[in-house]
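Standup notes
- DV: blocked on the single-chain target, sequence here:
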Amino acid sequence: MIRTDDRKSGDTLRRAAGCIVLAAAIGIAAPASAQKSPAGSGQTEIARGIVDGLDKVFGGPYAGHRAAHAQGILLDGMFRPSGHAASLTRAEHLTGSDVPVLVRFSDFAGMPEVPDHDGAANPKGMAIKFLLPDGGSTDIVVHSFDGFAAQTPAEFRDFVQALGSKDPQVLADHLAAHPAARRFVDTPKPAPVSYATEAFFGVNAFAFTNAAGESRFGKYRLVPEAGVAHLSEAETKERDADYLSRDMAQRMQDGPVRFRLLVQLAGEGDSLTRAAFPWPKDREEVELGTFFLTGFAENAAARQRDLLFTPLSLVGGIAPSDDPMLISRTRSYRLSHDRRRTRDPVVADSQ
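- DV (later): unblocked, structure below
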């Protein structure tokens, strides 16, 4: 149960919790071409400001939990590459044989016991870890909103801090000055019928290079084979607090839950470094393969605490773009990961 005294500035929290978005996880290292923000606004300082802002919104930090996407389920599965993937990339997990995967679905809020049907639980997150034959791994991180709430790392820090402010005028002023944040707040985010009926979108662009050395930029998309379906407001109110995990358990008894992995390719004029607004829907797509999700992972609670899903955990054939949001995501979630694995999250965050 969420404690009342944790709901700082209650009305602002409830409104903001349903509005913020952050990818389910982050990366370990920044791309070599990335540059620091202006003096006094370095990426580490910005990352800390993002995590601090999320804590204020959700009444955290909560020991052992993520600053965002605190509640989730962890599934075992397998990925089967398609015959089209090699035309885009030489990445080993996308062009070889079947690869085992771990997949984490999550509610957005940083509150660990938020009900699946609560406004704070949307948008949803999906994080994928491919388990490679040599013992290594590579990840994909996506969420159920096509776009992002900010154009730059500093802008995103300012957004989450405005959402956590006790003064509602701070948020109003930020939205008035930032179209990306306004679009994000104004876009409906209905609860899905199931995790298996939600579409997921990559935030940032990556460079995909095939065996011939040909490179193209693209963004990930995850499409559910069951089709996209959401609940009405009335239907949402009728669902149990943990309806999504119960639903997935039932579905996997009947067979694997399937998602198709696509890459939407950049067209002329599409920005590679400003991820707040989606590319046109008519852009070419390449299908990379299919996920088959078969059951709940063992020791899921402990493994979810320890796992770090990182969009910059890459293999040959896939490289990051110069989007600076990749760095802020990386460092924000590294801070969140480090502190949730310690007993005292406040002390950990200060180190």
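- Follow-up: Residues 1-40, 345-351 have pLDDT under 50 and may be disordered.
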